[in-house]
Amino acid sequence: MTNDSIKKPALTVDCPNCQQSIEWTDQYPERPFCSTRCKNNDFIDWANEEQRIAGSPNYDDIFSESNLSDN
Ligand SMILES: [Zn+2]
């Protein structure tokens, strides 16, 4: 008895943005994201986080203190 007609199960991954399980197939060209929308959302979140850290007063304090000790 052969099982030639049975495909191997596709690898599944969780969308980093919405945690929805998707199959790692051509059905999801934006994988590991489930959709273009999730892909864009993740990038926007990342960009906002970068800006927030760069503008943080605490970060500026640490930066200027290390400059002072260098001198
Ligand atoms: Zn998603």
Summarize the structure.
This protein is mainly α. It is built from two helices and two strands; from the N terminus they run E-E-H-H. The chain has helices at residues 36-54, 57-70, and strands at 12-14, 21-23.
Task: Offer a few descriptive terms.
binds zinc ion, elongated, Erythroid Transcription Factor GATA-1, Chain A, mainly alpha, 71 residues, two-stranded antiparallel sheet
Could you please describe the fold and organization of this structure?
- With 71 residues, the chain is mainly α.
- It has helices at 36-54, 57-70; strands at 12-14, 21-23.
- It has a two-stranded antiparallel sheet with strand order 1-2.
- It has a single domain (14-70), classed as Erythroid Transcription Factor GATA-1, subunit A (Erythroid Transcription Factor GATA-1, Chain A, 2-Layer Sandwich), CATH 3.30.50.
- The longest helix has 19 residues, at 36-54.
- The protein is built from two helices and two strands.
- Residues 15, 17-18, 20, 33-35, 38 line the site of zinc ion (ZN).
